[in-house]
Amino acid sequence: MRVHDARSCWLSSGLPCFAPGAGLGVLGWLVPPGLAREVLGAARAEAAGAAGPVPARRLRLLPPLLGVYFTLALCLFSHLPYQDVLRGVPGAPGAAVTALTGLRRRLGPRPLELLFQMVAGTLSPGRAPWSHACGLLLVAWDGTTLKLPASEENKAWAQGTGRGGHYPRARLVALAACGTRGLIAAAAGPHAAGERTLAGGLTGHLEAGMLLLADRGFYSWGLWHAASAAGADLLWRLSGNLHLPAVRSLPDGSFLSRIEDPRAKGNRSRKNGKRRRAGKAPDAGPLPAVTVRVIEFTLTVTPGDGAARTTRYRLLTTLLDHRAAPAAELAAAYARRWAVETCFAELKASLRGPGRVLRSRTPDLALQEIWAYLAVYQAIRAVIARTAAGRRLDPARLSFTAALNNARASAGLRPAAALASAEAALLAAPVPERPGRVRPRAVREPGPAYPRASDNDPLPHHATYTVTVNPPPAPPANQPSQHKPAKNQTEPPP
Description:
34% of the residues lie in helices and 17% in strands. By secondary structure, it is α+β, with helices and mostly antiparallel strands.
């Protein structure tokens, strides 16, 4: 029998070999040893350029398989030091901190990235009111940043610290299902990488039957075209400075408009006399203009004290049929975009810990840690989705914090026992239904010298929401032509 298939925990040399048993808790359910070995083999095959898995050539006291589970445990127990985390991994031998750091360096980020790709998904069992709108699965993407230790390697890689502070940061963009809050895909990179650039790498995970929600910072012609070409429908918020003339008004208050490739304007400028700079390659031909639907509405938020606040929204969508997708229903669906913000809050505040800096002092280890955090988050979300599906509940009724605490407490149990314990804990204290709440955005980072005025009360309050769809703007009236004086003549004084 080959060594990597053996079940014994001892090698012929007398050194103990890590062989994961059944006491891995929730992580052992979502990431069984067979899956961990599969991603390790795939990562070795990529590194070697081979077509099939390449077995490890060297036997170690701390093998790569231990590195996978140890890195996952570091993220599950983000508040514990290395040694305490290692003692919680069943069957793991004792090792010094420097040896564990060397294990993570040999492992690299790719196995954890492949592992996250294997466990990522919508986690949605079917069509439900809390997961769909207008017959489409609601998904959303957004970005956030993560603090890294201020080592020279991290500073050179990140090339930015964000707003305030001296910590370099990594940027993360995630695509999530709004109903289950399960992660479908993610892209990570240095802070200098823009959100649109990272989001462009996630368009391959979009498909027909999805309705992608995005905030106004994501719109660009290239990203809009790439996302719609993937087959998904889009519902994005826009800033007010984009000119969208009304081509046709619709009965529900929305209107159709046309957006064109900015390269078409550049071609017209060159035809009007502007020349391309010498040595610059000609641009690719512009894509044809597309018809879109614009929804402009006013959201009125009235808290319990009666002090109403109004905000204007402008949405752009590929759903052109106002009968199948009414404007009011799409305006209400856009509010579900906040689910991806909740994903980041649970990932950064609950799982990682509020304000906590990542452990890794090199970029490769930082990326490895980020992928491990995403895999652990997905494991906890999978437990919540499984429990909710068994009772036909909205996953929002089950507490992420309760599932996280139970996953930490049941780390030494078998997967079946850990799942039963998690289900009992989640159903024992469901989250009450709390519709119509409002809470001011919290500012967690040091801001400018003169911060904006904000509400001093951070507690949520009950509120009522009113959506009013605004009619399309009227075309500007034709201005009468004004008399222009002939050349070399001046206007008479008034």
